[in-house]
Amino acid sequence: MARFQTNYLFFLKKHKKQIFHFAEKYKQYIFATLLHLKYCFIMTVEELLHKYDLKNTGCRKFILGEMLKSDTAQSENELKESYPDLFDRVTFYRTLKTLEERGIIHKIVLNDNSVKYALSGDHHADDHLHSHFHCEKCDEVLCLGSKTQFEAELPQGFIMKDVFVVIEGMCAGCVAHS
Fold first, then answer.
1. Distance (Å, rounded) from C-alpha 82 to C-alpha 10?
2. Where are the domains of the chain?
3. Mind listing the pLDDT tens digit for each residue in 39-85?
4. pTM value surpassing 0.90
């Protein structure tokens, strides 16, 4: 793994200008990919579970392993797609709930009330406002790393806990293929 990191850093230094030009144009996709790379190359599933003081169960390992393979959010069905009958429904949903409660993953409720899950990153620790982009054509959901601005005047005595923003539209890949 150290060799990969060395080669990766060399590549970044060599192609710095091209990377920054590309990064500015596609920053939301790069953020999701970097979050994915952080978990893939810095932490294994076992290390992730250990960091959050969770037991290393088969279902937890399976769900996190599937999420680490993808850089987009996934629904329960997408997570179970490769092995649909591996875990019973109750175990699977309890595991999702535990991972969400511990902050390893977060839930994204789309406008059609379908739910997808994504790995949480450092940006979730302090942010009460976190936005996502949902492509209406390919159904991919990406965490947006850039700041989302939102102002709401709450009635006196009300306290804001969280704000969930889902931006609907078409991703760059789908626009290019249209």
1. 36
2. 26-177
3. 444 568 888 888 889 999 999 999 998 888 887 899 999 998 888 88
4. no
